[in-house]
Amino acid sequence: MTDIYEPSNPYSTKFDITEADFKLFTIIWFQGQGMGMPDHHAWMAQWLETSWKKGDLNLLLMAFRSAGKSTIVGLFAAWLLYRQADLRILVLAADHALAKKMVRNVKRILEKHPLTEHLLPENPDQWASDRFTVKRMMELRDPSMLAKGVTSNITGTRADIVICDDVEVPNTCDTAEKREELRARLGEINYVLVPGGTQLYVGTPHTYYSIYAEDVRSEIGEEQVFLDGFKRLKLPVMGEAGQSAWIEKYSPQMIAQMKRAAGPNTFASQMMLEPVNIAQGRLNPQLLQHYDLELEYQKELQTLFLGQTKLVSASAFWDPAFGSATGDRSVLAIIYTDADGRFYLHHMEYIRVDARNEQDEATQQCRIVAQIAKAHYLPSITVETNGIGKFLPKILRNEMAKAHVPCSVLEMNQTRSKSERILEAFDAILAAQRLSVHTNVFKTPFRTEMQEWRPSGGKGHDDGLDAVASALLQSPDRLPRIFGKGHHGWMNNNKTIRADTNFRV
User: Fold this and answer.
1) What is the value of pTM for the model shown?
2) Which residue, 275, 294, 354, 385, could crosslink 210 as a Cys pair with Cβ 3.0–4.6 Å?
């Protein structure tokens, strides 16, 4: 239906409309509020109604901040109950207060909308601010609409429609652990939703690893995007041609001013709907160069190559740790350099041991490190001796000897702060784009650590960053090595030659 309904006073007029479409339902409401309907609201309303009538069960509505998306979705929920009073709608939000806000808004729409007066219940106990039940034919245990925080218990609840309204906010996604918890909680929707039920996500991205991301983040173990198969509507504040999506409120000048005031990350995330971290990060992973080449040792030349590039030195740093999955990580970083001063982060190992193995954890880790050293032709490995690292070098040397690995074990006691080391190591190299990273490294948590690291400290992990920074900062080991005789010789390129200079002129 495309005709515009324009009553002079919608609250005093009796309507004989039993099958109003969503656009008409929305226009009546806005006119009763003395408001017009912006174009982008009409787009959202049309998309929601068309998707519903086509039977699309999984929907994602993304719109810029203050676009009124929650208002439209609230009207949509009221319209669904107007069309089918027996529906059960569950609203999940980042916390109960936010979910309650949407339920309260829908309740007020039903109270005041001219088309929904017949839905109001007779008993006030069925009309609470965080749950309500309209007049309906069926006797159902669950209310017509219920508000819950995403971390609350929803076991035993049943719903025909689940609306996830701003479940991703900084408080639910600013660390890897919180993102994992959020995904686990949202996975419980499958046990709440009845067969053939609908999921509707509404929100904006707050992190590079957003649940709304369109691309797989393989570095965190994703094999498919979280909302795989969802039908999407994306409404950024500014189109590809630079036009404003809501010109009455956001002029080009105001958009430019907003971008300057909010900063590029916040603007990109909240207004352009790009999955980036809202907080301004110091380390930019986009400055990393990618490569997918393997090492090749040429015994005759006693030289190590990366493709056609001759490598002249290596730095390997192990920052060991024991403990729980949420504590410090044990990380080994391996970096090579070429004659032009380029750095190649070729391998990172976030070391895990087998709890079922009878061997102690320290020996298991040292054996893993020894095998990695052998596979990468390392002349030496530096072990941080702060904390548990005090007794590991001796164990590592024993494991190197047992495995016949020609690699020296060096020790280092860190005295400077971790933030200082990371800044000193990465700032200039990233700015010059001199750090190349192997494709396999991007499958580790390294990129996540870069995205989320803050010089002032944060809640996320940074053990991988620290290991790489320490490898970058330590001086390359140029000790003579002879491969095949207990020493690697690919770095033995600086031979001393004595020449006779006692010439008679």
Assistant:
1) 0.69
2) 275
